[in-house]
Amino acid sequence: MVPFLLQIKKIMKANEKVTSDADPMWYLKYLNIYVGLPDVEESFNVTRPVSPHECRLRDMTYSAPITVDIEYTRGSQRIIRNALPIGRMPIMLRSSNCVLTGKTPAEFAKLNECPLDPGGYFIVKGVEKVILIQEQLSKNRIIVEADRKGTVGASVTSSTHEKKSRTNMAVKQGRFYLRHNTLSEDIPIVIIFKAMGVESDQEIVQMIGTEEHVMAAFGPSLEECQKAQIFTQMQVKEFNFRAKCIYTAVMVRRVILAQGDNKVDDRDYYGNKRLELAGQLLSLLFEDLFKKFNSEMKKIADQVIPKQRAAQFDVVKHMRQDQITNGMVNAISTACGLVKNLALMTHITTDMEDGPIVKLASNLGVEDVNLLCGEELSYPNVFLVFLNGNILGVIRDHKKLVNTFRLMRRAGYINEFVSISTNLTDRCVYISSDGGRLCRPYIIVKKQKPAVTNKHMEELAQGYRNFEDFLHESLVEYLDVNEENDCNIALYEHTINKDTTHLEIEPFTLLGVCAGLIPYPHHNQSPRNTYQCAMGKQAMGTIGYNQRNRIDTLMYLLAYPQKPMVKTKTIELIEFEKLPAGQNATVAVMSYSGYDIEDALVLNKASLDRGFGRCLVYKNAKCTLKRYTNQTFDKVMGPMLDAATRKPIWRHEILDADGICSPGERVENKQVLVNKSMPTVTQIPLEGSSVPQQPQYKDVPITEPLEAYIYFGPVYYQKLKHMVLDKMHARARGPRAVLTRQPTEGRSRDGGLRLGEMERDCLIGYGASMLLLERLMISSDAFEVDVCGQCGLLGYSGWCHYCKSSCHVSSLRIPYACKLLFQELQSMNIIPRLKLSKYNE
Q1: Other CB atoms within 10 Å distance of the CB of residue 390
Q2: pLDDT of amino acid 220
Q3: How far apart are CA 515 and CA 533, in angstroms?
Q4: What is the pLDDT of residue 520?
Q5: Contact at 8 Å (CB) between 668 and 688?
Q6: In the predicted model, what is the mean pLDDT of residues 587-601?
Q7: Is 363 in the same domain as 386?
Q8: Residue 340: other Cβ atoms inside 10 A
Q9: pLDDT beyond 70 at 411
Q10: E-strand stretches of 342-466
Q11: 520 and 493, same structural domain?
Q12: How does DSSP classify residue 679?
């Protein structure tokens, strides 16, 4: 939460002043911004703190108010208002502003929360929602890539809180052009250089590179500028575009070299990617909404100030909270696409201040670019130094810079997540301190010996030291993806050789949570591990210590969950044993002849009777009571009594006197759960679903005994949440879609059973034409139409409107969807004509 609060403070600073065109004296200035603690407004202006569980049960959003301090003018006065609410922000569970932060397990129990729940999600309108991490290409980095035709170009997406822009370097017929989202057309690159104050052609070429092939590739661009008759720059203001010139020159140089031997960048490589977490995504969202909010304020000020002469314009009266609130709530919605898993111990960095890094770099001999003529950039021993995509300067001895930098980081003088790496092909040193990079910790290896010894591990076990101490004493360090390329990492201690720089802390941390639950994964065929990673998420089990207090739409629980007999280290780390999702079954495998191995099981009835795989399925039923405009409202009535016996009728048997079913009652199909009466329509009952009968099992006697070896042992079985009863579906006739008159789709809508394209192909292969006709037309959407044999158009009740006669009209059956297609084509002035011939000729 803390980086997020810093982010929104920066966003507020970047958009702090709102002015009006109508009155130059009027302004609105934001002084500070805060996010409060989660609360709920019970009645007008009466709020109280709220717990996440209450929000789940009452279908509320777990959110906190965003307040600002402002200074503005009203008439000729200057007014300062503090703690003015501008909207609400959904709060992530267990973040620094959440009620649950820093609580003990006992306090968790009081709040009806599970102490093992990791948090990290939001509660929006009573539903738990997670914001998934999003992958983006790095901002402020030059990415060189080839398009489909093979032409090479470079692009940079620049992003600060003030403005965002995109710059492309394109090549057309051997000439270089700059494309920018603020410019309407592509501009020749040399004209851009001259506009930025580099007027001599020699200087431009020196910046880009003095090698023979580089100059040859850049020649046509210089000629083009010559033809355009542009030579010098008309100076308007004193701007120093030196750094921008060098950056542009580097882009051109990269493109020229990529046309030669150098490779283009790989946009799927994780060093060129940034991962955006919930905090960054929400701050991007807040930035948009805050700008929209301010432009709304400006619009109102522009409209109201000229009109009002009597009363003064007070901006506070026009501040609406709903704009920011709704924007925040609606954005947290469902996700789709490929979901990747992070490995254990992965850390995703957050943004850091780069001031100290700039100072350190200049002390280590990085020379400022503004002091150079530009030709030094193409010397073979001079390396460019980048910090977060911006050019810091150049250095001759890049190895010394990198080594000193790493020593300073290990000693704790700069943040442990700052990375420094070299790119030898582009002759660059990249220093990164931005957020969204993937890092993992590794043990440092010096002189073929790992820095962490058994003594350190004993101290860790006794609680003398923690992980932070390992970082500060240069025993362990974090490496990001780019820095891993410069390192040589050993997987095990015995594989360390003279080139090794780091040692993996523990090999199993290469796996994520899902794969880490599988014992002995290296003994399985690889797709089996992949399947288990997808299916482990669907296993029934325990969902939390508070599962009996939750009212979820659907909750599947195992009656007797067990912890696995064989466990991995990951299972201990994520405390899977405390919330297990499966049972240990003893399986006997008998191969009778060697050719009869199936993947089916025979269960013995005794274990089912004892509760093997028994599960509980909870479903909730909701009933909303509305108020209507004509002063009437829905209410819950007591059970209806039989006139003769004065007992509740069968449908209302399970209701209490308050009209709501009493707990623990067995509900049969068509019985009422809540007896709600509406003012116009009488009683719309909320009905229970049918309760299935238990299936009857029969023991089948086996006649002859088999003699074979039997191999058996325990296996941890997971029962998935897919139930046959929930999937079972059949239909003869039923509802149809209005537009096409074909049967509806899906079990919930009592839909038809689709004979799809592939099934159709099988029937065509068999030549079963009448079966095809039946499935695709007669059982689906057969329709009687009248067709005129002369003009081939559809008629109506035996009459052709086009020929104005009925002598050639025949009646035939076609699918309704086919008739619809013909009519829709006719509405677009395309005439489909049907050619008829007698079927007996």
Answers
A1: 14
A2: 83
A3: 6
A4: 92
A5: yes
A6: 76
A7: yes
A8: 10
A9: yes
A10: 347-348, 367-368, 383-387, 390-395, 419-423, 428-432, 438-446, 449-450
A11: no
A12: S
User: What type of residue sits at position 324?
Assistant: I
- Rounded to the nearest 5 degrees, what angle is found at the Cα of 61, between the Cα atoms of 60 and 67? 130
Specify whether the CB–CB gap between 540 and 556 falls below 8 A: yes
CA distance 72 to 79: 5
739 C-beta neighbours (distance < 10 Å), count: 9
How many CB atoms lie under 10 A from the CB of residue 231? 11
Tell me the H-state helices in 672-768: 724-727, 757-766
817 vs 820: CA distance, rounded Å: 5
Q: For residue 840, is it within any domain?
A: no
For 98-150, write each residue's pLDDT tens digit. 999 989 999 999 999 999 999 999 999 989 998 888 888 888 888 888 888 87
Mean pLDDT of 245-249: 85
Round to whole Å and give the CA distance between 567 and 777.
56
**Can you give the three-state secondary structure of 162-192, one letter per residue?**
CCEEEEEEEEECCEEEEEECCCCCCEEHHHH
Among 587, 512, 576, 580, CA closest to 540: 580
**Per-residue confidence band for 684, with pLDDT thresholds at 50, 70 and 90:** very low
The residue range of the domain holding 165 is 154-266
pLDDT band at 501 (very low <50, low <70, confident <90, very high): very high
**Pick from 198-212, 581-595, 601-615: least confident:** 198-212
Q: How many residues does the chain have?
A: 841
Give the separation between CA 762 and CA 768, rounded to whole angstroms. 9
**CB-CB contact of 88 with 122 (8 Å):** no
Contact between 320 and 40 under an 8 Å Cβ cutoff? The reply is no
Same domain, residue pair 352 and 497:
yes
Same-domain check for residues 492 and 528: no
pLDDT at 502: 93
Choice among 17-21, 245-249, 270-274, 317-321 with the minimum mean pLDDT: 317-321
Report the chain's mean pLDDT, rounded to a whole number.
Answer: 86
Residues 475 and 368 in one domain: yes
Instruction: Looking at the structure, tell me whether residues 501 and 541 fall in a common domain.
Output: no
Specify the residue for token string 């129990």.
Answer: 109
CATH of residue 222's domain is 3.90.1110.10
pTM here? 0.80
**Residues 711-747: pLDDT tens digits?**
889 999 999 988 888 889 999 889 999 999 999 998 8
Q: What is the CATH number of the domain that holds 472?
A: 3.90.1070.20
Closest CA to 804 of 816, 792, 795: 795
Q: What is the mean pLDDT of residues 308-332?
A: 76
Per-residue confidence (pLDDT) for residue 680, from 0 to 100: 63
Q: Among residues 218, 241, 266, which one ends one of the domains?
A: 266
Closest among 91, 29, 34, 101 to 60, alpha carbons compared: 91
| Residue 685 located in a structural domain | no
For residue 144, being part of any structural domain is answered with no
Helix (H, G, I), strand (E, B) or coil at 507: helix
Where would I find the beta strands (DSSP E) of 777-825? 782-788, 809-815
State the total domains in the chain: 4
Rounded distance, CA 682 to CA 686, Å? 13
Q: Is 835 exposed, middle or buried (0-12, 13-18, 19+ CB in 10 A)?
A: exposed
CATH of the domain at 550: 2.40.270.10
Q: Are residues 95 and 75 in the same domain?
A: yes
Q: What percent of the chain has pLDDT over 70?
A: 94
Side by side, the strands of the sheet bearing 684-687 are: 635-636, 672-677, 684-687
- Among 487, 510, 533, give the residue marking a domain's end: 510
In a domain, 379, yes or no: yes
- Interior CA angle at 228 toward 225 and 233, to 5°? 70
The string of DSSP codes covering 25-61 is T-EEEEEEEEE---EEEEETTEEEE--HHHHHHHT--
Q: Amino acid identity of 571?
A: I
pLDDT band at 685 (very low <50, low <70, confident <90, very high): very low
**Same-domain status, 430 and 545:** no
Mean pLDDT calculated for residue range 755-766: 94
